[in-house]
Write a structure and sequence with these properties.
It holds the Pfam family DUF481. Helices cover about 15% and strands about 55% of the residues. With about 375 residues, it is mostly beta strands.
């Protein structure tokens, strides 16, 4: 017998031996007992053995309790039937489909797979979470805007007919701090036109940060930045940065008198003609808020910047206002304002002085 029952995998050992030897087909049957050959394409069989091995081929016959198994047309095995777990007979595997032609590839596309319910639910959850985050961000931004905003101011003049004049003045002031530390940011500007001629186009962003040198001290340290655009002065940009010391003569919610002084650096960019100017300066600023009557207040912000390299170059900026209360809660106010800008060395073709008077409605939050 070619396969012994005590071997762990007799068919596998026998198959390896036949492949190594390369001899004739192993068979215990007589030469004349070979059955007629089967159609090689009629079926494909899979043999499962008790030890877990699997063989693919075709069964030829059963003689003396052994299955004659054809692995290839030139390789056969004799397998005891007690080693066999089951035999499955199936159809031959279909030939692979021919590759598509270039025309088919360009004209035929695979149908889109329908979106599953789980995918749709995931997309819906994603958008819900995204909108929740957006709503949270918007609410937080609005709360921060409310807590930082000190006042909103808008004013203007609009005339039509024989005289056509439009003037818009807007300012938003942000302020936040503690009883000792103050952070201020002012954003605003003016835009005006008269008889189709530009009369005002000025915008600015100013910031200031104060903190005392020690607890309960009136002496302060400050850092400030001033940024401006003014088309009427042919000024594309003016930026000043300064840091130094100061003193708080009064520092109350409705009464404030603060002086600041320190070195500064200013850059100016003009057009028509193009001109750039960088100067080290001295920086001096006076901030005033003062009640005049029970329903009237005065405010002033005055700044002077003489150049350290050219004593003939001096810049002055002044913003003055009178405020009248319009309600009992001191929220709505009417403001009469005057702005004055002076540049001793303006761009060629420009005058050194600018005056702007405004009437504005102001809402004060704190």
């Amino acid at each position: 017998m070619l396969c012994r029952a005590h071997l762990p995998s007799p068919c596998l050992l026998l198959g390896v031996w036949m492949l190594l030897v390369g001899g004739p087909t192993v068979s215990a049957a007589e030469p004349n007992s070979e059955p007629a050959p089967l159609d090689r394409l009629s079926s494909v069989e899979r043999l499962y053995l008790e030890n877990g091995d699997q063989l693919t081929g075709r069964s030829r016959s059963v003689d003396d309790g052994r299955l004659r198994w054809e692995l290839t047309p030139e390789r056969e095995l004799l397998i005891p039937v007690e080693w066999i777990a089951r035999l499955e007979i199936g159809s031959p595997p279909p030939p692979p489909p021919p590759p598509p032609s270039p025309l088919e590839e360009s004209t035929v596309s695979a149908p889109a797979a329908p979106e599953s319910t789980e995918a749709a639910a995931d997309d819906e959850s994603f958008f819900i979470a995204w909108f929740d985050r957006l709503e949270t961000w918007a609410a937080g931004t609005w709360n921060s805007f409310q807590s930082l905003t000190r006042r909103l101011q808008i004013g203007g003049q609009f005339l039509d007919g024989n005289t056509q004049t439009d003037l818009l003045d807007v300012i938003t002031e942000f302020e936040k701090g503690t009883p000792t530390h103050v952070r201020q940011v002012d954003v605003g500007g003016q835009w005006g036109r008269s008889n189709n001629r530009q009369t005002a186009n000025r915008w600015f962003v100013n910031s200031n940060f104060d903190w005392p040198v020690s607890e309960d001290s009136s002496w302060i340290v400050f850092v400030t930045s001033k940024n401006e655009y003014n088309a009427m002065q042919n000024l594309d940009y003016r930026g000043t940065i300064s840091s130094g010391g100061g003193y708080r003569f009064f520092f109350e919610p409705k009464k404030r008198l603060i002086a600041r002084f320190g070195p500064a650096f200013t850059v100016e960019v003009f057009h028509d003609p193009a001109q750039d100017r960088l100067t080290p300066d001295l920086f001096g600023e006076l901030e005033v808020r003062w009640p005049l009557r029970p329903r009237m207040q005065f405010e002033e912000r005055f700044r002077i910047q003489p150049s350290l390299l050219d004593f003939e170059l001096v810049r002055i900026f002044s913003t003055t206002g009178l405020l009248w209360d319009l309600d009992e809660k001191d929220r709505w106010k009417l403001r009469l304002g005057l702005q004055y800008n002076y540049n001793s060395q303006p761009n060629p073709g420009r005058v050194p002085n600018d005056y702007i008077s405004t009437i504005s409605l102001m809402y004060l939050r704190k």
